[in-house]
Amino acid sequence: MSIQFRDAALAPLEPVRAEVPDGTIIGVIGDQPDALSALARLAAGALRPSTGEVRAAPPARLVGPADPLNLAPAATLVLEHPLALQDAVVRARSSIGIERLRRHGASILIISHDQNLLASLCDEVWWLNGGRLETRGDPRITLDAYNRHVNSQLRQWAASISEPLAPSMRRGDGRAEIVSLETLDAGGNATVQWQSGEPVAVRVGVKFTQPVEDPVVGIMIRTRIGFEVFGTNTELERLKLGPVEGGARIAVTFRFPCGLCPQQYTLTAASHDPDGVWHDWLEDAVAFSVTDTRYTAGVANLRATAELERL
Fold this sequence. Notes:
The protein is of the alpha/beta class. Helix content is 18%, strand content 41%. The strands form 4 sheets. Strands 5-6-7-3-8-9 form a 6-stranded mixed beta sheet, with helices on both faces. Strands 10, 12, 14, 15, 17 and 18 form a 6-stranded mixed beta sheet that branches. The protein has a 3-stranded antiparallel beta sheet with strand order 2-1-4. Strand 8 and strand 9 form a beta hairpin. The model has no long low-confidence stretch (mean pLDDT 92).
């Protein structure tokens, strides 16, 4: 007998009408822990719904993240973050054990944020958005929809964060001072997160304390471990800034498409003479991250496509 949710609800879980057929592994992902937990406990019979009905074949077993990983035969198996505390060997063995239970006809529900696990093991993935079953279906399609949602939430959060200047090193003769350094999104808004593939910008604010004949302003992007990814300056971009007088303030904006892979980066900025004498140099002054709706490896996101030719 499958696990059947017949408009079953238990706050904050809203009514769910869905089924986990016999011999099927269903994965569940979402951003409301209490709703995920309610779904797991309803499926295992540990709690009763406030409205609706849940039917499942006995014996039903619920395995939580701190419970012994019991994969003995059962008609209904509910796993709530089962491998979160396990090492690689246990995880590999458990995946085999879960697949074996599925082949013997068990109805299996896996609550997890491990997307690789869900994509590799599950026949279908459900996405709980808050307490509502937002969508269900093919694991890759559902996970892509979930990741787009997460990315949207992160971008809203990132737009509300102000990253202060906190250089790991500062040096220069003081003829100019970098007073602001901002990473901007496609709309020109300050943010600590870029979306891979979108147009972005870096804006450097400089105050000159003394006259400078021919100042150059530049930036350098590095990975979190110090690998230099991209650098440029106004001299390379053929933008002449001087001469400037003492007391003058300028802002230089560098615009480019974000061709970076998702990870953490730092931004260095400097004002200097053409011969390299620094006015102000801020090493790794701000940190920012890059996200994408799909996984890419490395640093440079080349937006590759793939095509098949049968020979």
